[in-house]
Amino acid sequence: MSLPRIAVDAMGGDEGVRVMVEGAALARRRHDKFKFLLVGDQAQIEKALEAHPNMREASEILHCEDVIAGDEKPSKALRRAKTTSMGLAVQAVKEGKAGAAVSAGNTGALMAISKLALRTMPGLDRPALAALLPTLGENDVIMLDLGANRECDTRNLVQFAIMGAAYSRTVTGRERPRVRLLNIGTEETKGTEDIRDAANQLRAATGLALDFEGFVEADKINRGDVDVVVTDGFSGNIALKAIEGAARFVTDLLRNAFTSSLRSKVGFLVSRPATELLRHHLDPNNHNGAVFLGLNGVVVKSHGSANAKGVANAVEVAARLLEDDITNRIASDLGVLDQANFNPVPGIAQAGE
Amino acid sequence: MSLPRIAVDAMGGDEGVRVMVEGAALARRRHDKFKFLLVGDQAQIEKALEAHPNMREASEILHCEDVIAGDEKPSKALRRAKTTSMGLAVQAVKEGKAGAAVSAGNTGALMAISKLALRTMPGLDRPALAALLPTLGENDVIMLDLGANRECDTRNLVQFAIMGAAYSRTVTGRERPRVRLLNIGTEETKGTEDIRDAANQLRAATGLALDFEGFVEADKINRGDVDVVVTDGFSGNIALKAIEGAARFVTDLLRNAFTSSLRSKVGFLVSRPATELLRHHLDPNNHNGAVFLGLNGVVVKSHGSANAKGVANAVEVAARLLEDDITNRIASDLGVLDQANFNPVPGIAQAGE
């Protein structure tokens, strides 16, 4: 089977071409059937490829010098899409020259460019941005939407649940990921009307390939007993950043505490393997690969400051989503949902499968 | 000057009468002019007071056997208000027999009972729940609203800013606390229309005793460079719980890491002073004292699981808010706001002071 190529925006992100190319090369070791379209300055890419001869064979270079700046407004970035590395990587997906695009550039610009070029898939109202977060359990938890949609209605939330579950199947291997809606309490009466209605619809739509388990509060996201946390873009952005900030806050406190006395310094050195484990678990590079779900094509956002291992994780996410044919999986589940909506009694919806 | 008494719901919370009485006694050491009304089972309170003879002299006991349960619905709790320790503590404030009430019981019930008994203060649309969170700086940060109001409009947010600043002046001693609105970005175009309008109004109302410094993202709440974070109750609840959950997540990881090898265990023991410092800084007992702001009277919520030191902090918050006459401070700032709204040009509003 010939798998579609992955287009890599080699110029986006803070770390430059070398890290993007090295990351793609690392990912290719585990997904060696994939080919790549590297978009960016030809001379720089050629130089970076010298260290990765196998990658050289699997790659085509699309030369381009322009880069979208990290602080560039999405509206301006949209106008420059066709001359920039990010825009051309997404364009390659649109034209079928690649199945997925990976970029470490400006998130807002990537979202705007991807939406305009690839369009929302049929049957879906709005795409969403989904990210991976570490947990105390075996697998990362997926949270969406994280800011693509400031306000979301019932139908959006239900569709996000379906898309998140499709992504989670790829990440966790679970056939029926455990899905919950983010809320300010777990009782059925809590939250806005849209959230409560979405819960009712998800409870009723038993034909979907997911287990809907009700509400989750924001302090339980990382416990490891939920695979997909569904929320509107505003709350999701607040929750994601609050978690990142608090994790950094605690590790900063810890660092200050460990450097506050000689005794602590000695203890810190002796227990370094433990603190390394902590760092490893919290390192965003190990949870890299935010995905724009719901477009006609796969677009993965890598952290702007990701190292080569982080980029490799983002490229692997793209590769695995392509292998699992996520766009068709989502389309099929959206079909089940529409059926369930015509027959809102669970028994009938099941019989109709 | 005779300061008003503090009514303590001695029965609410998980830890029982002994801890509530001990906490009040601890607080009284630093605020020895205060007198107390202890509401609950007389025999249990008498017994708890045996260990605190000074407190005995300063206390009156209001006997009552009924307690609002931790999981009791606010609607049911409201009907039982007049026979329960929580209800009678709040009732004492309403009747002028106490200036403030402190309870470690059911938050939703306390909010409902307090709103009905004390009513929202004149000129204010809605009360709010404000809590203290630890920071890397010298002082705790105040965040509000945390769930009293699921949806909030521009005027609510502006009034929350005024109430939060008044509370912060008591906590930090700053005459002009630094206030920011929680948002999903710091650019002026980010967020909902209500948030952007609230920012414009706060920027224009220069007569207020606060410095409005724009938006803050949820990952910067604990940095120590903002004194008051203003948000609607839904987002505030999400942010608060996300921070609590992430802090617990990191400390759980740390504990796992430290117990994963003998070498780490030894290091952990050697560096115990450092990890104790971390625990001290994150201990909710040290940041205890969520306040319902905007009622005709002061109501402080202590954590349900707070120890005596935690209860003492909550009682001290009540004492200091009474000493600072917070209700009149808020009323006066609301007056400035109304003036500013009639004269929205900052220069004119200032001249009118």
Automatic annotation (TrEMBL), chains A, B:
Q: Give the catalysed reaction(s), semicolon-separated.
A: a fatty acyl-[ACP] + phosphate = an acyl phosphate + holo-[ACP]
Q: Which UniProt keywords apply?
A: Acyltransferase, Cytoplasm, Lipid biosynthesis, Lipid metabolism, Phospholipid biosynthesis, Phospholipid metabolism, Transferase
Q: Pfam families in the record, alphabetically?
A: FA_synthesis
**Pathways per UniProt:** Lipid metabolism; phospholipid metabolism
| InterPro entries cross-referenced by the UniProt entry | FA_synthesis (IPR003664), Phospholipid_synth_PlsX-like (IPR012281)
Superkingdom assignment: Bacteria
Task: Please name the SUPFAM superfamilies in this protein's record.
Answer: Isocitrate/Isopropylmalate dehydrogenase-like
Q: What is its EC number?
A: 2.3.1.274
| TM annotation in the entry | none
- Cite a single GO MF annotation: phosphate:acyl-[acyl carrier protein] acyltransferase activity
Query: What is the uppermost EC class here?
Result: transferase
Q: Where does the UniProt annotation locate this protein?
A: Cytoplasm
Keyword field contains Lipid biosynthesis: yes
Q: Which Gene3D superfamilies match?
A: Isopropylmalate Dehydrogenase (3.40.718.10)
State the family named in the UniProt similarity comment for this chain. Answer: Belongs to the PlsX family.
The record's annotation in NCBIfam families points to: plsX
Function as written in the Swiss-Prot or TrEMBL entry = Catalyzes the reversible formation of acyl-phosphate (acyl-PO(4)) from acyl-[acyl-carrier-protein] (acyl-ACP). This enzyme utilizes acyl-ACP as fatty acyl donor, but not acyl-CoA.
Q: Cite the record's note on assembly.
A: Homodimer. Probably interacts with PlsY.
Query: Which protein are we looking at?
Result: Phosphate acyltransferase
Q: Which organism is it from?
A: Qipengyuania spongiae
Gene label: plsX
